[in-house]
Amino acid sequence: MRDFSEVRRVIIKVGTNVLTRDDQLDEGYIESLAAQVAAIGDREMCIVSSGAIGFGARAMAIRGAVQDVVLRQACAAVGQPLLMQAYRSAFGAHGINSAQVLITREVLDNRASYVRLRNAVERLLELGTIPIFNENDSVATAEIGTAFGDNDQLSALVASKVDAELLILLSDIDGYYDRDPRRHRDAVRLERVDAVSDEMIAEAGRAGSLVGTGGMTTKLKAVRIAAEGGCRVVLAHGRENNVVPRILAGDPIGTVFAAHRKLRNRTRWILHSEPKGAIHVDDGALAAIRRRNSLLPTGITSVSGLFAAGDVVLVNEVVKLVSGFSSRELESLIGRHSSEIASIVGDNRKAIARPEDMVFLDE
Ligand code: GLU
Q: Is the CB of 168 under 6 A from ligand 1?
């Protein structure tokens, strides 16, 4: 039996396929979703909605998949206001305000802008407004490394950053199956999954060429991100009747993925940030930080990338940490003793990173 009675904050992610009917934005679906959310009342609800690129393309009569990056940006710029118009009018019919929140990976990777984003979301929720998130696709492009690309992982990061307890992925598939349901007629939908293994992600990738399961890899990755934030995930078919209230009432719809022990907020931020550069350290230094000691300049053998103090960097491919020094400062500190830091960089910072600034990816 599922029990979501303690859940206060919920993120609902809606995919483009769910929002589409006869190749058009299905405003009736958005109306139904708004009615479901409006009926809930006693919980804080946020939506992550896809569809900007798809609806922008249709509005401009662009046929087929939009692959060119700049065209995708242009389509998103046209489609995003159409999407918001539909949400605002659907929620408005219930006397509820909705708000557009556009994010990029950079916003979430930067600790200061992420905290500001979080404050804004808290205030919107206090004001009884429904925040509607999407990636800011007209400025975030995969080429320059600033894009998430898919809203599954984006929705999990949002859930993690705003401490949601439940993420509902509304998709065009009705759950997670033990085998690819397109190839195996006897595939069974799992009611509950306790942990997402590497094998499950690899298997989902192999099924990726088949219609309808293409997005399972990103969904499983999203589940992992959410689980680390103590957030459960339900994957369900978005067109299931009255799906959101029924999920919250504990109906066994779709698949529920369990949460894990909740990592500290700062740890999650480090873990989910895209590294801005890399540091290589010798075996002794790596062993020392594994024993939860600070990282000192003596052990550094090389530095790559351009980063500022406070950025997240990758160490020997296995540790993500917040560097207390910029890449330029670190280059001048390679192999030097801590006692020399002051004379080289001119202040009294002692360690490159302390144990609380590090996350081991393989532990
Ligand atoms: N952000 C994209 C859009 O609104 C959607 C990404 C996705 O489908 O996951 O068009």
A: no
